[in-house]
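Continuing the series of single-chain predictions for the mutant panel. This is the parent chain; the variants come on the following pages.
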Amino acid sequence: MGKRSAWALPYLIFLVLFVVLPLVLIGVYALTDADGRITLANMGAFFTDPKIINSFLVSLEVALENTIICILIGYPVAYILADKSLNRSAVTAVLFILPMWINALMRTMATAEIFNVLGIGLGKGTLLFGMAYDYLPFMIYPIYNVLDKMDKSYAEAAQDLGASPVKVFLKVTLPLSLPGVASGVMMVFMPTVSTFAVSEILTNNTIMLFGSVIQEQFNNLMWNQGAALSFIMLIIIGVTTLIPGSKNESTVEGGATV
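Parent structure:
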């Protein structure tokens, strides 16, 4: 225990038990059948079962729409929060954290009850409203952090060269803030695809997302197929996580030279 590296042992044990082992179990169940024989039939269901394909496409559609809504609302909010001339109080940023102090499931149920009281029928519109309400902070804060830490000398230099405020934003601020936008997209898009509780509550199960299909598989004790769909979801998340990482570097370098 005299070595500093020994202090990492509890974290290593936690990582193995609660991260590596569950992922290995998902992989094993995904690639085997109920009798333990190796098979790709569970994975093939993702490409052949119309119900699974339809739910995945609907999930992508809802996730894309929710992400666009969060960007359109979140970017102006983050810009205002980061601009000291528009926002002079640090308390304002805390206000956007307050809803996150309440359990997401409780927030969703409260939102559904508000719609019921107002006589608004539950459907895709209420689903998108609830999704945006739940995930909007995850879009605001990555963008806010980038804008808040941005070197203001770039914008000042552009202004000194005669650039208009609109051109300064389009040529300097926006390109430099794209890494924050990319992080926000990842934090909103992928969780939206895999969620199930929000869609079930805010649509009365009329819209089934991909996460709901996975949950249904496990509820019906179809562990192997449920694990296969979860495994495919993990692959998609892993691949999409790598793509923005390579783009962020080029964006920052390109933005700094504008």
